[in-house]
Write a structure and sequence with these properties.
By secondary structure, the chain is mostly helical. The protein has one domain (about 25-110). It is built from 2 helices and no strands.
């Protein structure tokens, strides 16, 4: 695999896409929570032979929602870490730019003397 020079636009694009994905996941979890509440209410008002089955389904869906929430938290942590990497890349780019400026000044100064 060939190593390419870092391109900050790629990282910015990745962060933007991850943020959009995280927002969509949060919207899904909000809708899922409302749906789960409705299912729980329906299960409690259902006939006694159907109620335990619906409660079991609601419990399973609740576990899936909790797993997705945990995943969402990990995703937000990932986005934060990408932000740190972006800031570090900007610092490195600034140092490189400063180095080039100092080198040019040094060469110009050396040719004058």
């Amino acid at each position: 695999m060939v190593h390419l020079a870092p391109d900050s636009r790629l990282l910015v694009s990745l962060v933007k896409q991850e943020q959009a994905y995280a927002a969509q996941l949060q919207t899904l979890l909000n809708a899922s929570g409302a749906s789960l509440s409705s299912l729980s209410v329906y299960a409690s008002s259902s006939p006694p032979n159907l109620s335990p089955v619906l409660n079991d389904v609601a419990g399973s869906l609740s576990g899936a929602d909790e797993a997705l929430r945990t995943y969402g938290e990990a995703l937000n942590d990932w986005i934060d870490r990408l932000g740190v990497i972006k800031r570090k890349e900007e610092e490195v780019a600034n140092v490189g730019r400063d180095r080039e400026i100092l080198f040019v000044w040094f060469v110009l100064y050396a040719t004058i003397i």
